[in-house]
Design brief:
Keywords: ATP-binding, Magnesium, Metal-binding, Nucleotide-binding, Transferase. The protein has 226 residues and is an alpha+beta fold. It is 36% helix and 10% strand. The chain has a three-stranded antiparallel β-sheet with strand order 3-5-6. β5 and β6 form a beta hairpin. α1 packs antiparallel against α3 and α3 runs antiparallel to α5.
């Protein structure tokens, strides 16, 4: 945030303009082909986990991690956005307060404990990150062809979702994903844990995302010309 201003009865917030758009737009080509390779997936995950580690260390949960909430600049820098569902789970002395029970977020990315309305904390963001990883691999989250309520029941009652094409992913990526999608929140990895995961050693510089961004800009240009 660059600044905020009171204009009459409104609060205006000035924020960085991220001209690369949302991660969602980079997942698949117009013909439906998956775009992202594992280096690019690791690069996005590392940036998001750094943001989550910072939030969680200050007792804040995001509660709406998904590809729409990840914005990029055209030079490949990744930023976490959409903080409307954030909540405090620790006080200033970093003492645990009452866990949250509100049913908030976006259905397909919600963790089982959010849907069950059982007390939850920072672990919900890690589950949602796992679903976002599945988006980057499969092009969409699990159960996306289902109605939201049906999808929520499946997330709540069934084992963690599986990739459509696991044979196309490395064992490292599958292991990383498995640490995110554990039904028991107490066994789920933390953001700090995941930052040390071997899969993230494949993360590149922001420039590795520039190819995706360039392809997307060309595709948009062709669409406008047709």
């Amino acid at each position: 945030m660059y600044g905020s201003y009171l204009v009459d009865s409104e609060l205006w917030v000035v924020m960085e303009y991220l001209d690369g758009g949302a991660l969602t737009d980079l997942l698949v080509t117009p013909s439906g082909e998956i775009r992202m390779n594992e280096q690019q997936i690791a690069t996005v995950c590392k940036a998001v986990l750094k943001a989550l580690a910072y939030l969680h260390s200050h007792g804040v949960i995001h509660r709406d991690i998904k590809s729409d909430s990840i914005l990029l600049s055209t030079d490949g820098f990744v930023k976490l956005s959409d903080f409307g569902f954030c909540a405090q789970v620790m006080n200033e002395k970093k003492a645990q307060v009452i866990k949250r029970k509100s049913l908030v977020g976006t259905p397909y990315w919600m963790s089982p404990e959010v849907i069950s309305r059982t007390p939850y904390s920072t672990e919900v963001d890690i589950w949602s990150l796992g679903i976002m990883v599945m988006e980057m691999i499969d092009g969409e989250p699990p159960y996306f062809n289902e109605q939201p309520l049906t999808a929520m029941r499946k997330i709540r009652d069934q084992p963690p979702p599986k990739l459509k094409n696991p044979h196309k992913t490395s064992s490292l990526l599958q292991g990383f994903l498995g640490r995110c999608l554990i039904r028991d929140p107490s066994q789920r990895a933390t953001a700090i844990d995941l930052l040390d995961h071997p899969f993230l050693r494949h993360a590149g510089n922001p420039s590795c995302l520039q190819t995706l961004l360039s392809e997307q800009m060309i595709a948009k240009g062709n669409l406008h010309m047709s």
